[in-house]
Structure formats: structure tokens, C-alpha cells
Write a sequence for this structure.
């Protein structure tokens, strides 16, 4: 006798939801912790609301007394720099959603760094 595969019932499917959600939260948390800025860092990847345009990002960095180093592929992602010890928190106060380590973020997402002749 040949057995046919059975689809999970509603009860079995709902039993998988808590471990799946826990796994998702754990992965997102580990990613965010791994990309948090380090002490003494001067450059930051700044991420704002998905609908933020480049002009808003420039204003956000200016409000935190920083300078723009590079722009991301999305209008709401920018690399900013400041020597201020409070720059990260200033960016949050100005409206940033996330302030991350740009080097780690670039490595995690597989984004190649732009080559600048001055760095050679």
C-alpha cells in the first residue's frame, strides 16, 4: 500500500509559529548587535524611514553636525562621519531609524566598497 504525503492540519501549522518567530527574532537581533557601532568609531551607516529621500537624509546628518561620506543604493541609506562622541545618539534624535557600523554592514550585505584613489 502506498502512502500519500499529508498536508499539516491547522493545529500542526500553528504549533510551528512560535519557534519560527523566535528564530526570526533571534536572527534579526544577532544581525543588529553585530552591526552596532563600536566605541571610537567616526563613520556610521545611517538608515532612515523607507520613504526618506536624499534631501531628508542630508538634513538629518546636518542636524547631527555630521558630514556625508557616501550615499547608499537606497535614498534612505547614507554613510556619515563626525568626530563627536555623541554623533550616534545625535543621529537618532535627528530622526535616524538605525545607526550601524558601515564596514560590518557592507561585509554582511556583500556590498563592495568604493575605491577612492586617496586610499591607495
Amino acid at each position: 500500500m502506498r502512502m500519500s504525503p499529508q498536508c499539516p492540519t491547522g493545529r500542526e501549522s500553528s504549533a510551528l509559529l512560535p519557534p519560527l518567530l523566535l528564530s526570526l527574532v533571534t536572527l534579526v537581533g544577532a544581525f543588529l548587535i553585530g552591526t552596532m557601532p563600536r566605541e571610537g568609531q567616526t563613520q556610521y551607516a545611517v538608515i532612515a524611514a523607507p520613504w526618506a529621500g536624499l534631501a531628508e537624509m542630508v538634513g538629518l546628518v546636518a542636524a547631527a553636525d555630521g558630514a556625508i561620506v557616501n550615499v547608499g543604493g537606497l535614498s534612505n541609506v547614507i554613510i556619515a562621519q563626525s568626530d563627536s562622541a555623541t554623533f550616534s545618539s545625535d543621529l537618532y534624535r535627528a530622526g535616524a531609524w538605525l545607526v550601524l557600523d558601515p564596514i560590518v554592514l557592507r561585509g554582511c550585505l556583500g556590498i563592495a566598497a568604493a575605491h577612492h584613489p586617496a586610499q591607495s
Summary: The longest strand covers residues 43-47. Confidence is low (pLDDT under 50) at residues 108-120. The chain has four helices and four strands. Strands lie at 43-47, 67-71, 77-81, 98-100.
